[in-house]
Amino acid sequence: MVYVNRKEHFNAAHKLFNPNWTKEKNEEVFGPCANENWHGHNFELIVTVKGTPDPDTGFVVDLKKLSTLIKEDVINLVDHKNLNIDVPFLKGKMVSCEIIISEFWKILEPKVAQLQKGASLYKLTLYETPRNYVEYFGEQGI
Ligand SMILES: Nc1nc2c(c(=O)[nH]1)N=C([C@H](O)[C@H](O)COP(=O)(O)OP(=O)(O)OP(=O)(O)O)CN2
Questions:
Q1: Is 80 annotated in the active site?
Q2: How far, in Å, from the CA of 131 to the mean position of ligand 1?
Q3: Model ipTM?
Q4: What pLDDT is recorded for position 142?
Q5: What is the DSSP string of 47-93?
Q6: What is the pLDDT of residues 20-32, one digit of tens each?
Q7: I need a surface site. Which of 45, 55, 99, 127 has the fewest CB within 10 A?
Q8: What pTM, to 2 d.p., does this model score?
Q9: Domains defined for the chain, CATH in brackets
Q10: Mapping DSSP to helix (H, G, I), strand (E, B) and coil, where does residue 17 land?
Q11: Residue 74: which of 101, 30, 104 has the closest Cα?
């Protein structure tokens, strides 16, 4: 098996805010991330696809096709958007990295499987800041 990676980026605004809590409780739990007038991040999304190289092309998956898929099905929906307001698949959800990455997985997993026979989505990695990032392998429970 070979693991092939494609990194994409997007810029987006959000706030971490539980509507069932008071403003004070949100500020206590989320700190500046609960700022009611939003804040922004430069996100990086790394998509890892697993498979065996095709004998004719040497590719597990064509990285150009993978990049186009990620951009059309995920990046274009979140780039320069307010994640709490503008993105239908995040509506009503807490927009932590954990929730964002699991929603990305639901979109990408079936589409990646169609790119090349035997190739499958292995892992997503989402950087919210250069120091804060999450990884998701599609395990259930979220
Ligand atoms: N488990 C999670 N914890 C936190 C999340 C998250 O999505 N999942 N998100 C945030 C904030 O949105 C944001 O990431 C915090 O930004 P910031 O504190 O500026 O980030 P840094 O740690 O990189 O900045 P430092 O200057 O190093 O503190 C918070 N928690």
A1: yes
A2: 8
A3: 0.89
A4: 67
A5: EEEEE---TTT--SS-HHHHHHHHIIIIIHHHTTEETTTT-GGGTTS
A6: 999 999 999 999 9
A7: 55
A8: 0.95
A9: 2-136 (3.30.479.10)
A10: coil
A11: 104
Cross-strand bridge partners of residue 50: 3, 120
Can you tell me which atom of ligand 1 is nearest the CA of 97?
Answer: 7
Q: Is the CB of residue 72 below 6 angstroms from any atom belonging to ligand 1?
A: no
Residue 108 and residue 124 in contact, taking contact as beta carbons nearer than 8 Å: yes
CA 20 – ligand 1 centroid, Å = 21
Active-site option among 39, 72, 80, 109: 80
Token pair 């004998």 in the structure block, residue: 55
CA trace torsion 6, 51, 137, 99 (10° rounding): 40
Using pLDDT thresholds of 50, 70 and 90, give the confidence band for residue 140: confident
Residues 6+ apart with CB under 8 A from 70: 6, 8, 45, 47, 108
Chain segment 31-54, per-residue pLDDT in tens: 999 999 999 999 999 999 999 999
* Annotation says 128 is catalytic: yes
The answer to whether the CB of 116 falls within 8 A of the CB of 60 is yes
Task: Identify whether 97 is a catalytic site residue.
Answer: no
d(CA 33, CA 114): 37
